[in-house]
Amino acid sequence: MKKIGVFTSGGDAPGMNAAIRAVVRTCFYNNIEPYGIYEGYKGLIAGEIYLLTSKDVGNVIQRGGTFLKSARCKEFHTKKGRQQAYDNIKKHELDGIVAIGGDGTFTGANIFNREFNIPFVGLPGTIDNDLFGTDYTIGYDTALNTVIEAVDKIRDTANSHNRLFLVEVMGRDAGFIALRSGIAVGAEAILIPETQTYINELVAKLESGTKNHKNSMIVIVAEGDDAGGAYEIAEQVKQKCPNYDARVTVLGHIQRGGSPSALDRVLASRLGNAAVDALLANKTNLMIGVVNNQISYTPFSKAIKHHQKLNTDLLDLAEILSY
Ligand code: F6P
């Protein structure tokens, strides 16, 4: 293996730069030329592929975002787009590709792998943590810390005014961010897409909080919850309990930014290194993750089915501790 391409794709996540750095430095260690592909699949199709130097990845481990930039690419959904991507890989004589991204990135990689014989491995880079085959994805821990910092501040003002706050967090159609951040901030309720939300049950829980003389109440709402977003749920709660002084905060893209946490930097460094090793060992069409602190390999087709991963013990814990 002489040349390896690396790209970031889909929603950016803190720690992506650390992962690129680890891929590049491991390439140099093995006398392989690392090529940066800009803007994910978009750059692969457009031929935005450039040789990286060790200096290019200096002073990036601590930076959020991705210096290779990222995109969501519709063209890669077409056979014509994928053919163009293949032609560019051949043109630049890339012997293997490391894709850093999430569900959409690996869905694309899986299709590409069936059509073309190019060694392709993936690293889980998404704040959503919605990939099977890794305990944590790169960016998840930092996003959790961002949410916690924000909600702690909301708690201060909620307590001062005896208010109910519904805080909407990201996660697409998964509740990992909501569940863990909810436990960490001591939320009174956590609403996630993996479980059915009943407004009557939520209201009963809030009423019992009021009876227990709680000064403030925080409900964490995952953006993909079946009962709707935080604004819709607040409306439904207000209809049943007009006396609640309810407020809504949607945290939004702030959750995607910021300097990666120590956990994310180390995870990204381990995975970036393992990606090059995997390509050298002729592994392909799989995502590399960390399970029980060991590097693990999961076919793309299995990695993108995240739902088996939610820890139901945490759901029970959240329920017990919210009383
Ligand atoms: O996948 C990461 C994520 O931030 C999701 O949590 C969210 O639903 C989505 O991306 C937002 O995407 P965009 O930045 O394209 O609006």
From TrEMBL:
Mg(2+) binds at D103. ADP binds at R21, A22, V23, V24, R25, R155, G186, A187, E188, K214, N215, S216. The gene is pfkA. Allosterically activated by ADP and other diphosphonucleosides, and allosterically inhibited by phosphoenolpyruvate. The keyword Magnesium applies. Its cofactor is Mg(2+). The active site is at D128. It is found in: Cytoplasm. Substrate binds at T126, I127, D128, R163, M170, G171, R172, E223, R247, H253, I254, Q255, R256. Keywords: Allosteric enzyme, ATP-binding, Cytoplasm, Glycolysis, Kinase, Magnesium, Metal-binding, Nucleotide-binding, Transferase. InterPro entries: ATP_PFK, ATP_PFK_prok-type, PFKA_ATP_prok, Phosphofructokinase_CS, Phosphofructokinase_dom, PKF_sf. ATP binds at G11, R72, C73, G102, D103, G104, T105. One of its GO terms (molecular function) is metal ion binding. Belongs to the phosphofructokinase type A (PFKA) family. ATP-dependent PFK group I subfamily. Prokaryotic clade 'B1' sub-subfamily. GO terms for biological process: canonical glycolysis; fructose 1,6-bisphosphate metabolic process; fructose 6-phosphate metabolic process. NCBIfam families: PFKA_ATP, PRK03202.1. SUPFAM superfamilies: Phosphofructokinase (SSF53784). PANTHER family: ATP-DEPENDENT 6-PHOSPHOFRUCTOKINASE (PTHR13697:SF4), PHOSPHOFRUCTOKINASE (PTHR13697). Its EC number is 2.7.1.11. Residues 3-279 form the Phosphofructokinase domain. The keyword Cytoplasm applies. It catalyses: beta-D-fructose 6-phosphate + ATP = beta-D-fructose 1,6-bisphosphate + ADP + H(+). Its main location: cytoplasm. It comes from Vicingus serpentipes. One of its GO terms (cellular component) is 6-phosphofructokinase complex. This is ATP-dependent 6-phosphofructokinase. Pathway: Carbohydrate degradation; glycolysis; D-glyceraldehyde 3-phosphate and glycerone phosphate from D-glucose: step 3/4.
